[in-house]
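okkk here we go again. third time trying to get the calcium ion bound version out, last two times i messed up the smiles copy paste (missing a bracket lol). double checked this time i swear
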Amino acid sequence: MIMRSSILACLLITILASCGSPEVSEVEVEAPAQPASKKIPVILDTDIGTDIDDTWALALLLSLPELDLKLVVSDHGDTVMRARIAAKLLEAAGRTDVAVGVGKKLSDAFVPQSSWVDDYTLEQYPGTVHEDGIGAMIDLIMNSEEPVTLIPIGPVPNIKEALEREPRIAEKARIVSMSGSVDEGYGEGSEPDPEYNVKEDALATRAMYEAPWDVLIAPLDTAGRVQLKGADYQKILQSQKPVIKALIENYRIWAQNIDWTQADPDTASSTLFDALAVTLVTSPEFCVIEEVQIEVTDDGFTRREEGGKTIRAALGWNDKAGFETWLADQLTK
Ligand SMILES: [Ca+2]
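finally!!
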């Protein structure tokens, strides 16, 4: 069907090209077939392996039928280790059609989920692995017929470098990111904090915000409040879906290796910051989204500032409980 339409389209182009004045009405063309997918092409840029929420976000992304995940690129710190974790998770999910890209490697800093990939190298991944993940990101955006949604859920040195190498990506992509702290910080009702992803590389975040593309953020104001517990969390624990079992394996390893937060994999998730960024791509209605002018300071604050870059931010909830139940259902269905 698709091929037949393509042939007809070629034929039409050939006829139009060969006639001086296009007599379109004389050419019989069947209605265009639905494109292979009307899905939104997306790229995930992730620091998977440091906080467990990226693993949740990737599992969620794979569960959303509206999204066509093309590429996962590891960002910040030990990007090779992160790419191994992403690759093994994609394989566990049966999604080796998704390419994996290695982002800019900045350090060998310990990655708390690393023991999950003791037995797994990038050479084992049956899908495509791009050693230059930033180049792969640029090529994908520049060659895509549809605008690409780029979802950064970690510090963003890759994005800064991609914009430096090819500024035109900003004309062909939009950003939906877990980033920042607008009116509240890590604690509910607290003053704004320098949010981790921003603080780790404020210059990169500033470059990402200020590029001429649409930016939508899930800041601490909302993303910092997402947690599955009770019946919602039990659905996750009881799921036999391979990617969810792999997620819980990772959660148990991670919980043993971190000391910055309390986590009990038998009773509840940790804070699932990054899952909200993925959700905003398809279901922004769970949140109250406002246009704000934001300035990124050198010390990692994302302050309201008149004259700052106008972006959109999920600053409140329409239905937080409904979102958390949807999240558990979506992950396990
Ligand atoms: Ca992250």
